[in-house]
Target: ROK family protein
Amino acid sequence: SYAIGIDIGGTKTAIGLVNSEGQVLAKTSLPTDQTLLPSEMVDRIAEAVNGLLNDKGLQPSDLLGIGIGAPGPLNTKLGIIAEPPNMRGWWGFPVVAAFKKHFSSEIVFENDATAAALAEKWVGAAQAAEHFIYITVSTGIGAGIYSHGKLITGATGNAGDIGHMAIDPAAGTCVCGQQGCLEFVASGTAIARSASELLGRSITSKEAFDLAFSGQDGRMEEIVNRAFRYIGIGCVSLINTFDPELLVIGGGVSQVGAPMFDAVSDYIKRYALNPSGRDTQLVPAALQQDAGLIGAAALIHIPYS
Ligand code: ADP
Ligand code: ZN
Model:
């Protein structure tokens, strides 16, 4: 059986046809054009979905359903995108109703990080875990929490928005208005900001890592290590709160690899509150590019709540 997964993002929307084994049979992506109305974007996405189905000789009636992941804050009870900072044009948009105009199959809608966690459970790094947390460190920071064999979605689908846990209130003010959010101090955006301030020119977080690990700039190393320590602090809070067996970290920044995983792992071994907490496994995400669309399709293929 087949599902469509749609991962709506600030820069692009990924769309995939996914079978019941979690294999992506066909996929495409569209730039999220901020000059278009969201309803026009949905028209284009629907066209792309029909294109994928046509290519495989399928009809919309062959679909088990359509899963949609989108950045928070959203409201899955109301089926709306609420107020994601990078998608201002979509604020309040009734995304589920918009897709229902195009398709009669079941439509399920969840936060993108929650959906990506389900993808890791389904075909990724968390297949054996009944209790785990998936964390994405990229432009922002988010998480999906899987506990007792189920996703914790919260009342409105916003559970796991750990990017806005306060970690260091002295550090400055986040886009959300609170001071010292995890995302404000440890995301790729945060590392790039601090590194650019240090150098007096604009660089990316990837470039900051390369400089830090070249051993030529101790201050850049400090910036990077501070971000890793903040991620460690966030992980310890999550371990102490949810008692997971496993943490899975994905997102662009996690591609830096061992330096981050070793630093976070050391922090957990030192500060998690109980012996089992200190033993919490930490592994890289198995799915990178396709986590969002596989997760969106997983919402249709597997029971999660
Ligand atoms: P998005 O936030 O749009 O999902 P990504 O997950 O690719 O995008 O995250 C982008 C962030 O990851 C940027 O801050 C970028 O500098 C950083 N990044 C991308 N690739 C790497 C890499 N190989 N190593 C370290 N950081 C990376
Ligand atoms: Zn915040």
User: Anything to note?
Assistant: The first strand starts at residue 2 and ends at 8. The pocket of adenosine-5'-diphosphate (ligand 1) is lined by residues 11, 138-139, 188, 192, 204-206, 209, 251-253, 255-256 (CB under 6 Å). Residues 218-242 form the longest helix (25 residues). The mean pLDDT is 97.
